[in-house]
Fold this sequence. Notes:
Chain A has one domain. Helices cover about 65% and strands about 0% of the residues of chain A. Chain A has helices spanning about 5-20, 35-45, 50-65, 75-90, 95-125, 130-155.
Amino acid sequence: MHWIRFSIILLLVTLLNAGNLLNTIPLIDSNTRPDLLLVLLLFFASNCKTLEAIIASFAIGFAADISGVEMGPHIIAFGLLGSAISQMRRVVVMKRMIHQGSVIFVTALLAGVMVQLLTLVKTGSTPPNAYKVLPVTALYSAILGPIVWSVFSVMSGWLGIRKYRVGRMSRR
Amino acid sequence: MARKQINASRGTVLVALLFAGIVILFVPQEHTKKLNFLFRKLFNPVLSLGRSTTVAFPVFTSSNEDFVSGSEYNRLVTDYDNLQGALKELHQQYNTLAGIRARLPEAGSGYVLAGIRDVSTDPLRKELVINKGQLDGLRVEQYVLGGNTIVGQVSETSPRWSRIKLLTDSGSSVEVGIWNEKLKKYIRAQLVGDGKGAATIPLISREYDIRADDTVYAAPKPGLLETPMVIGNIVSIAPDDNKPLLWDMTVKPLYDAEKLENVVIIVVEPVGEPK
């Protein structure tokens, strides 16, 4: 994988995720936003070699934390989930949009819960409306995620990712 | 381009990165928040792209002196409510102090004007990032004015930047007063943000005569706010479905803080501090 190109994509997605530019899309506002970094995490975790996927997952978690409020929760949550998904890709196939959406939904919920728990550990408090917002964010990410995923797929050659193939020839 | 191969096992890399993550997690927020503020500062022009702002104080242009625009009317009503709040407080103070030896008035509030650098896009947080911090006298819990109403409180500070937790944030809880004309006093309550764009006031008995459109004031707090200041109006009030003896109230802040360009932080000098 081309790590410099990965860094550029990561910075762009982080700025898009944390900035106000997405608010110009009528379906997106500050109350309901998809988590683009989570989609990026799943894309790299399911398409890169395992070692690259682990490093990319922690890097995406770091980007999510630095663009947020607390440092640490996303690094651990995204790092662990990304590493786990890269191990499970022989089991969980994410070729079709419906599969991608389902995995994004489940992972967004898991990541959300982990981040809130770790935030509680760090700061001693979590937003009281987290249990209402997390499912909405997960659902929204699951609906829009596959479209964003297809954009990343187009760039996979430029990023130096040789897409993971399921089958006898897939062992690395 | 030549690519370097990473010579380490997956397990080693995973454990090393996880350990680094845990270390960062347990570094106190006092230190790690500098990185968050640095990111906001570095990429502020890009992050604020697409933020819709309106002029906080619309200029009245009509030539007819008998009529004002809707926005001007709202501003005047808010000013009037603020003056009413200050007047009621002064009356109460006068009654208390009547007969007591007159003393020198306490130092007034200081105001720090700050530009809004960013609005949080996290659905879990309703926050503003401003370009004033500890060096300008900002401290956590200080009240923040947007236009001429309270919009939130300072929640986190760094030397030059700070975060403002808006009243609509689900973690916001502010002591407020609702003026009751019959009792001639404020009904004290707690205003809790709903995380969307409004706030609620729980646990108020239905024995109080409260109606829609009643004005909600931020309650004075020693060292933070000297007189009541307008927050917003009650937009809906009905008996609580689960607790019929209590009101279920929704308060709408008067100003959309996300559209403001500047805010003012009330920096009250501690009483007795030498000048």
